[in-house]
Amino acid sequence: MPVPLHHPVDLLRFSTCGSVDDGKSTLIGRLLYDSKSLMEDQIEALERSADITGGGQINLANLTDGLRAEREQGITIDVAYRYFATPRRKFIIADTPGHVQYTRNMVTGSSSANLSIVLVDARLGVIEQSRRHTCIASLLRIPHLVVAVNKMDLVNWSEERFNEIRDDFEAFLPRLDMKDVKFIPVSALNGDNVVDPSPHTPWYPGPTLLGHLEGVHIGSDWNLADFRLPVQWVNRPNNPKDHSLHDFRGLSGQIAGGIVRVGQPLMVLPSGFSSRVKEIHTPEGRVDEAFCPQSVTIVLEHDIDVSRGDVLVDPSALPGCSQDLHARVCWMHPRPLQAGKKYHLKQSTQSALAIVQSVDHRINITTLDADEESNELAMNDIGEIHLRTSKPIVFDGYANNRLTGSFILVEQGTNATVCAGMLYPPTEIARPEYRDFCI
Amino acid sequence: MTSYYLDHLQYLETEAIHIMREVAAEFERPALLFSGGKDSICLLRLAEKAFRPSDIPMPFLNIDTGHHFPELNEFRDRRAAELGGKLIVRTVEDALAKGIANATPGQVSRNHLQIPTLLAAIEEFQFDCCIGGARRDEEKARAKERFFSFRDSFGQWDPKNQRPEIWNLYNARLNPGENMRVFPLSNWTEMDVWEYIRKEKLEVPKIYFSHPRQCVRRGGQWVPATDLVPPKSGEQVADLIVRVRTIGDIISTGCVESPADNVDDIIAEISIARVTERGSRADDKVSEAAMEDRKKAGYF
Asked: Which of A112, B4, B176, B266: CA 20 to 30 A from A360?
């Protein structure tokens, strides 16, 4: 049997979002089917459920609607993850439902995505939902956006209609700070421009949807500028058989930004202790250099006090460090967010208590403008708040770093995750007390 | 491409290690579910990498139905010993004897009896977290499950009320009696698992490779002929060259006819396969919601 070539294949995470009728499930079904990622037993299962419940009609949504309640009610309740691969790339699709908990689901499914697909029905053009979707993608700072103008077959493959929609869309893009937006005319139902190029769009010179997903450059989606290592776990071998390990003390974590090299000076925040990198261990062994988002274990030259929740940073690119945080948040719980309430905060590996100092205003998610002043946020609202934490938090602005600029709030007692937060940049950089301290 | 670049396996590895370390840091009494199957073999390697040069800071737990492939148990015991880990095995047999689990009259399969056995083991050792090797691409109820899957004090999963998971921030908070199941391989596919086995040169039980075996045709697939459910008259029995693609209980695991006797051949076989891995597990075919129902009751 032939052995497939091994060459590096990277991974693209993308989200799709939409309501029932805009063809989202059909589009995903099409991507999976035409890229030969559906298996016979999956197709059989689809056909079986079609005979029983669907009046003989295959429903591609049944592929992603995995829960009994979803099939019973014909709705999608939660984000579903799907996997497929082409020879060029592996893909993770976060398929987020569009109904009731739209915002919450989209934030959950898209927070770590490289790319998001907005579906626009060519007959309807840019509607409120398209704007909402795009605004949330912009808030989450998803690096790449694809606007798939679907059902082109129903507008006779009109180039004018496509251009009209693109112009409408581009009219509100500048305020959103989206750098990479791609427009593609498709018919998910018939498969035009999804995997195979369409004979109906000679006026469209660009790639098919899959072609674009395979080709889009994601190498610079991580922050490789400012080194950050939130310490997850301190690695100290207990009674090692190897005696040279008696004094081993490694700091384990996933690099959340930048590059680190052996010999480089590092600072520990919030304490401000300084040291240098002695050893770097990665899953593939000991190295001289490691980068975001690798999981590493770092050994410092000095035996200084470092524990989970501390952050190792490059002293020439200091983050913020403060008990006062200003953030945009997405509220995800039926009990509203109100000023004065206390929550558990988790940011990178740091945990603290946080009190809501103020709810400043709600954000209109079709324009990103500040809405009316409001002192509470309801489920699926996005707004701006000020928090005060029980101890200093080391952070960056979310725009600069998605990993050190994000946090969640957890309700006390129920332990429900109630909020996703994106921090504004620090107003001043960290000024540790022991700046010059070194053992 | 610059050198500051992770390929898909390196990315999945770094993600899984991050999750393992979150477990070690956030829970007091975690355990790692280790069956000796290919997914848990990857899990074990990731745990080694996450914590080295320290030992893996948690015991291994296996729920033995008594219907395991003997090759699998042999492998499980040997690997655990090689790693110097503490292996805890709790058996369905024992749970039946103690009245923790009750067999359904007339039903031979012990798949569902793993649930009370597992929950009893969790209670016995006061585990607050179990790391498992489940993947989202296996089954569509799993496609909806979180990395950190919260279970209430009855061990139940509530798919309608899962905690949102945003960025890489996992909410590990529990009240007493509650439990977390954590799945570091959530984003891995069957192909990723085999590619990782190849890359890391991991040993897997021999039954994954082509071998001669007497099989009996049942429910549209070949299952091993055993004394547990002897072939009935009229059932087709044949000596075949087979391998298993996924390992469940010996009475319900489908064998596929295959000449693949090394990892490269298995990868080549999967890349042209037209049936999913779980297509060969009778326990999943009971109904469309078979997995969901078991998970709600406390299954892995």
From this structure: A112
- Residue A148 in any domain: the answer is yes
Out of B53, B141, B265, name the one closest to residue A66 (CB).
Answer: B141
Q: How many domains does chain A have?
A: 3
Residues A245, A185 within the same domain:
no
CB within 8 Å: B288 and A67:
no
Four-CA torsion A217, A218, A222, A226, nearest 10 degrees: -10
Of B18, B169, B288, the CB nearest to A407: B169
ipTM of the complex as predicted: 0.91
Considering the domain architecture, whether residues A233 and A193 belong to the same structural domain is answered as: no
Asked if A4 and B160 come within 8 Å (Cβ–Cβ), the reply is: no
Q: Compare CB distances from A68 to B22, B143, B292 and report the shortest one's residue.
A: B292
Spell out the domain ranges in chain B.
8-196+288-297, 204-284
Lookup result for tokens 């790391």: B131
What is the topology classification, in CATH, of domain B8-196+288-297?
Rossmann fold (3.40.50)
Same domain, A173 and A26: yes
Q: What confidence tens digit (pLDDT) does each residue in A181-196 have? A: 999 999 988 889 999 9
| Neighboring chain A residues of B18 at a CB cutoff of 8 Å | 232, 253-254, 295
How many Å apart are CA A264 and CA A277, to the nearest integer?
5
Chain B residue numbers with beta carbons less than 8 Å from the beta carbon of A80 are: 140, 143-144
Using alpha carbons only, how large is chain A's radius of gyration in Å?
Answer: 24
Predicted confidence band of residue A47 (pLDDT cuts 50, 70, 90): low
Burial per residue of B178-204, b for 16 or more beta-carbon CB atoms within 10 angstroms, e otherwise = ebbbbbbbbbbbbbbbbbbbbbbebeb
Q: Which residue range forms the structural domain that includes residue A336?
A: 320-423
> What digits encode the pLDDT tens for the residues A362-398?
988 777 788 777 788 999 889 999 999 999 999 999 9
